[in-house]
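>> Question from a student workshop board

For tomorrow's exercise we were told to take the sequence and the ligand below, predict the bound structure, and bring the output to class. My setup keeps failing. Could a helper post the expected result so I can at least see what it should look like? The ligand is (2S)-amino(carbamoylamino)ethanoic acid.
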Amino acid sequence: MGYPNDILTSRAVVKHGLYAVIPPEGRVNNVIPGFENVTMSILSSPGIGAKFVDYIATFHKDGKNEKGFGGQEDIETFVYVVEGKMEAKADDETFVLEQGGYLYCPPSVKMYLKNLQDEDSRVFLYKQKHTPLEGHKPWVYAGNSNDIEEVIYDDMENVHIQDLLPTDIAFDMNFHILTFDPAASHPFVETHYQQHGAYLLSGEGMYNLDNEWMPVKKEDYIFMGPYCLQAAYAVGREKLSYVYSKDCNRDVSL
Ligand code: UGY
Ligand code: MN
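>> Workshop helper replied:
Here is what the output should look like for this input. Compare the format with yours to find the bug.
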């Protein structure tokens, strides 16, 4: 880095509690105990008004977390491999995750991560408080988004969705990937209670957040708070695609 060679500007926008766009060039690194040889940046957190924490983490050669991530009796965790090759363990079950691979760990199950290659591997990491439902318990679940069928979204053949976790009522949230062909868009501007943390995997778009349109692209991160208006048009020549979290299967508590 060093001295700037131009006026300091940023595409980042942060409206606490409402939405945030956090592009890679403004992110700072955070030391998180337990992660070794890993460059981590905290994205969403309660500090921005989110009820979950998202991180983007670059595991360098020998990068690992041997102490375990999550594992508390009320915390669930999720990891998605943006690029590279990782070993991910859920207590003593081991998974090898390549690009698109992911692992969900329910409460009380620790996640252990290790880079399996000499080059960097990058992951999108998440934790949140699980809302239990009597008689139901979510379970360890791993997969790869490249193996999941893309389903037509809201009757529009140029938009597809993938559900990464089981649609079982035991789960209080899911991760999805939405993919828009160039020029595709949402069918309407959404207004909903649920929050999202979205990591852009490819392409470029114009995103409407609280009725402000802003350009976004691959590697940007977007936080959408409760009731934040939201919709996008894909622009450019590549598909706009992002992985994001969404709560489900629970009533709102008062
Ligand atoms: O599932 C969703 O709410 C999703 N369509 N939201 C979004 O893409 N901003
Ligand atoms: Mn939404």
